[in-house]
Specification:
The chain is mainly α and 147 residues long. The protein has one domain: Four Helix Bundle (Hemerythrin (Met), subunit A) (Up-down Bundle), CATH 1.20.120. 48% of the residues lie in helices and 0% in strands. Helix 2 runs parallel beside helix 4 and helix 2 runs antiparallel to helix 5. It starts with 6 loop residues before the first helix and ends with a helix.
Length: 147
């Protein structure tokens, strides 16, 4: 399973990020490319413990549903994001994409055995599960823009 803890998987995602530009239209969904970059950065910040999200208590925070959604099932196109992941306003394209790159590298440098914060959607998950979740999240949004 692909994960942000694998250097080759991170490198492949960063290469796809190189193919994205601010004018690229989405294949589905409401976000433009710049908003998506900020959304992905916010998700990485929360997974790294920067900022505080609400405590997940819905059905997605319980096993086996959270496991199925993170590891097995395809992600729905146009699904509603938790509000905590939508608060970052775009700055400059260059600055925001550089920040996303930095966050991807910072995430990948952490030890999956460390203590990780709770996910606002999926509850308490392990570091290795965070790695899969963040890889799939970025992959999902890159596919949203055809890359």
């Amino acid at each position: 399973m692909k994960t942000l803890f694998n250097a080759a998987d991170r490198t492949a995602l960063l290469g796809r990020l190189d193919d994205l530009n601010a004018a690229r239209p989405p294949v589905w969904g409401q976000m433009n490319a710049h908003e998506m970059i900020c959304h992905a950065g916010t998700a990485l910040r929360l997974s790294l413990g920067e900022g505080i999200g609400r405590r997940a208590n819905g059905p997605l925070a319980r096993w086996p549903l959270n496991w199925l959604l993170i590891y097995v099932l395809p992600w729905p196109k146009g699904a509603q994001s938790p509000p905590e992941l939508l608060g970052t306003q775009p700055g400059t394209w260059e600055g925001d994409t550089a920040e996303l790159r930095r966050l991807i590298d910072e995430f990948g440098a952490r030890d999956p055995r460390d203590d990780w914060p709770q996910s606002v959607a999926f509850g308490k998950i392990s570091g290795s599960t965070w790695g899969v979740l963040q890889y799939r999240h970025l992959d999902h949004h890159f596919r949203q823009f055809g890359i």
